[in-house]
Amino acid sequence: MTSTPAENVYYVFRRQRSGAPLTEVGSVDAKSAELAKMFARENYARRKQTDNLVVVCAADMEEIGEDAAYGGTLEKNYRKDEGYDVEGFPA
Amino acid sequence: MTTTEITDIGTAELDGFEQGLAVALLEMADDDHVIGNRLSDWTGVAPTVEEDVSIGNIAQDELGHAEALYEEAADLVGSTLEGLAYGREPSTFRNVQLVEREFADWADTVVRQYFFDVADDIRTGALLDGDLGERDESLAGYLAKVDQEEEFHAEHGEVWLESLADEADSTERVQRAIDENWVDAVAFFTSGPEDIDFAEAGVYARSLDEQRAAFVDEVTGTVGAYGYDVPETDVEDVGAGRIGEHTADLEELLAETREVREQGIDVPA
């Protein structure tokens, strides 16, 4: 089985209520953004309170990759914000 | 074959408005009951897993509308939800043939669901703009919500019509479905044997002829924009479902809906 080409994969993000962060909830396979929005609405908003849904085509997402040395390579634990709620949800 | 006149279905005495409303509600309920069950044919086998959920949701919406509308119609005529949904002969159902026939393919489903939802939206709008708000505020409130769901269903159809328009094979299938279903779609705006003047009775703010014209306009514009053609129609030549003329597909569909009840298992509708 071949995997779906990136231009036909749309990641789905939900904002549960006004002011809450957009949270990735999954993806849909679709040949257009219009179709993706319709699928997202039917598949990800029927059973959860939803203020807004956003779809992003996988082909349009820029990534740094899993190999990058995020936060540097030396021990810098003092920089980490564990325990603080700085982005609207605990780190 | 002809369907039972509305005054012979239940026990209640009805005034002119109520008779018209009862006919309208029963036509709506039968349409929703039949298309909801017919769309369920796609459960598990829709073109993609996402669409499987989508079409299943729409089917459930339609079945929910049918249940509520049968209840309203039953209250009005003096019958029961079960009696109207499961106790009538197929030849007395008032749904259009558009919603009863088995689907030929996905394009056929997209086209028929789209035709139905646009038509249903126009009909519900005409009902809400009539005297219903004064006569039954709670039913009018419910129907306004139903109308919003129908608008979304029509959008679902439009997105699919657009999606299927960019390849030769699918475009050809959609065009074939439009040609084959057009007469049945136009027949949506006919009524049963009572020959009620709905506009005169205050039931619909716009006559069936006016609603049909609005439907033809809307559909011609929308599908035309995606590159499909709508055939010419002689409106004198349509009819069938509303007066009780149906295909064998309806008998099979209704038999399936009655199967559990006929085994003596008492389930809520």
Task: Characterise the protein shown here.
The complex is a heterodimer of chains A (91) and B (269). Chain A has 91 residues and is an alpha+beta fold. Chain A has a domain at 1-61: Phenylacetic acid degradation B (Ubiquitin-like (UB roll)). Helices cover 13% and strands 22% of the residues of chain A. A 3-stranded antiparallel beta sheet of chain A has the order 2-1-3. In chain A, strand 1 (9-15) and strand 2 (23-29) form a beta hairpin. The radius of gyration of chain A is 17 Å and the shape is flat. The mean pLDDT of chain A is 88. Chain B is mainly alpha-helical and 269 residues long. Chain B has a single domain (10-262), classed as Up-down Bundle (Ferritin). Helix content of chain B is 63%, strand content 0%. Chain B is built from 10 helices and no strands. Chain B is globular and about 55 Å long. The interface between A and B is medium-sized, with 12 and 13 residues.
Can I get a quick summary?
The complex is a heterodimer of chains A (91) and B (269). Chain A has 91 residues and is α+β, with helices and mostly antiparallel strands.
Number of self-contained structural domains of chain B: 1
Head-to-tail CA distance between termini of chain B: 27 Å
| Percent in helix of chain B | 55-70%
Quickly count the helices of chain A.
Answer: 1
